[in-house]
Amino acid sequence: MARCLMFESKLLKKFRAKAVNTLVYLLNKLPTNNVEEKTPFKAYFLLCLFCSYTTSETEQVKEEVPARNDYRIYDLSFKRVLTNRDVVFDEGRI
Predict the structure, then answer these.
(1) pLDDT by 10s per residue, the chain, length 94
(2) Phi, psi of 16 (to 5 degrees)
(3) Which of 2, 29, 79, 82 has an alpha carbon 20 to 30 Å from 38's alpha carbon atom?
């Protein structure tokens, strides 16, 4: 399936790892027969295997994790991957 993604998008071979990561991400978001009415991501997100936990009596400070809503863009002129949140896509021009 990763080959199909690469072929259809006409990506270079050096982006094979990114295509496989994208494929795994997409497969984890699709529903499956193994877990009823849930996607694998929803079934196993925050699932902790073989662990224990304790609570403390002190006040805990919640650290906010920054959201990862960014795009990875390959710059053809410099041959490097840029990461940016503010991207406008021009789908009319390919």
Answers:
(1) 777 777 877 878 888 888 888 888 887 777 777 666 666 666 665 444 334 333 334 444 444 545 566 777 777 778 888 777 777 767 666 5
(2) -60, -40
(3) 2
Entry field: residues in the chain? 94
Domain assignments of the chain as residue spans, ordered by start: 1-47
Nearest-CA neighbor of 30 among 1, 66, 65, 4?
1
- How is residue 58 written in tokens? 């002190």
- Within a 10 A sphere around the Cβ of 74, how many other Cβ atoms? 14
How distant is the alpha carbon of residue 11 from its chain centre? 18
H helices of 1-71, where? 2-9, 16-29, 40-44
Nearest alpha carbon to residue 73 among 65, 81, 85 = 81
Q: Whole-model pTM?
A: 0.42
